Amino acid sequence: MTPPLPSPAVLLATAAGHPLHRLALDPLTAGPLAHPYLRYALLAGTAIAAAAGLVGYFLVLRAQVFTGDALSHTAFTGALAALALGYDLRMGLYAGCVAVALLLGALGRGARTADDVAIGGLFSWALGLGVFFLTLYTSGHAAGRSGTDGGAGTSVLFGSVFGLSAGQAYTAAAVGAGVCAATAVLARPLLFASVDPEVAAARGVPVRLLGYGFLVLVGLCAAEATQAVGSLLLLGLLAAPAGAAHRLTARPYRALALAGALGVAELWTGLALGYAVPGLPPSFAITATATAGYAAAYGVAAVRRRGGEGRGPRTAGSGGLRGPGGLGG
User: Fold this and answer.
1) Looking at residue 304, what is its pLDDT?
2) Residue 150, class by beta-carbon neighbours within 10 Å (0-12 exposed, 13-18 middle, 19+ buried)?
3) Where are the alpha helices (DSSP H) in the chain?
4) CA distance 164 to 42
5) Are the beta carbons of 156 and 223 closer than 8 angstroms?
């Protein structure tokens, strides 16, 4: 058989000494991706959204969404404390979110869910402490500085995904990929411990240790998501895609994958809107898209219920999920 002739574009590129692999990328790099800030936002945002979707699935399943809300306030305080003391804000984000996540696990039963009053009191205190550190930072009374940066608090609260540097984007991508990998490894025992903790413990599953490990992942994910959508809006990225996945399917592994995929798709849509519409904050576009996605899933689930085909929302202990022997996705 005679091999097909190369296209005219390939012939011209070869004659000009143009690398063929660059030929396929040129239409992209000549467009929106020619801007480094958009490439960094896509790289970091994709990993963050995938991690938030996977972790968020278990937050919804274990009825720990309020924990994610508390960590959003902690992220603000940790970042401002690091800035006030003269350190990189990411150190404060990671240290603060992970430490408070473990504290909430210690306050709860079996590292699962702390009392709502304890969580509410903690995040109110954390938010007040954040305002204190913001005052120290902007007044220059801490770390011997005389300069001020009044925009730091706004950046932490509402995110700056288009302002990430190359180093920040690579770090966010690495952390997000690590959280995704750890969640995938822990998925089966964590599902068992979330659906029926008593039976899981009786069969030798380290339920309490798994709970603490999961909370560490939530803290890392909250710290990373703060850079994309801000501490005030990160709950939308954690809860909305996962909530939509719970509405659309009762199969655990399918819902887990769907939550990650929805998070990535909604982040890409938000970034595209933020790029295309001047003056539209990308963090708002991302969370608005995630909210719209959840509303659409809610509508689909309602229609299914009326038609006698759907399944209601699944939460821990509802009996809607299969046991560990049936976690076949």
Assistant:
1) 86
2) exposed
3) 8-15, 20-29, 36-61, 65-84, 89-107, 116-139, 151-158, 166-195, 197-202, 207-229, 234-248, 252-276, 282-306
4) 10
5) no
The HSE-up count of residue 139 (CA atoms within 13 Å, CB side) is 8
Which residue is associated with the tokens 């903790």? 197
63: helix, strand or coil = coil
Q: Say what the alpha-carbon torsion angle 108, 110, 112, 114 is, to the nearest 10 degrees.
A: -10
C-alpha to C-alpha distance for 286 and 294, rounded to whole angstroms: 13
Of the listed ranges 13-22, 92-101, 145-154, 223-232, the least confidently predicted one is: 13-22
Q: Is the pLDDT confidence value at 143 over 70?
A: no
With H, G, I as helix, E, B as strand and everything else as coil, classify residue 156. Answer: helix
Identity at 171, one-letter amino acid code: T
Calpha distance 124→134 (Å, rounded): 15
Q: What integer is the mean pLDDT of 302-310?
A: 76
Residues near 101 by beta carbon (within 8 Å), at least 6 away in sequence: 67, 71, 215, 216, 218, 219, 222
pLDDT band at 187 (very low <50, low <70, confident <90, very high): very high
> What does DSSP assign to residue 277?
S
Asked whether the beta carbons of 275 and 38 are under 8 A apart, the reply is yes
Measured in residues, the chain has a length of: 329
State yes or no: pLDDT of 324 exceeds 50: no
To which residue do tokens 């992209």 refer? 28
Give the per-residue SS3 of 186-226.
HHHHHHHHHHCHHHHHHCCCCHHHHHHHHHHHHHHHHHHHH
Tens of pLDDT, residues 2-50: 444 444 444 444 444 545 445 445 555 557 788 888 999 999 999 999 9
pTM: 0.78
Structure tokens at 45: 């945002």
220 touches 97 (CB < 8 A): yes
Helix axes 89-107, 65-84, angle to 10 degrees: 140
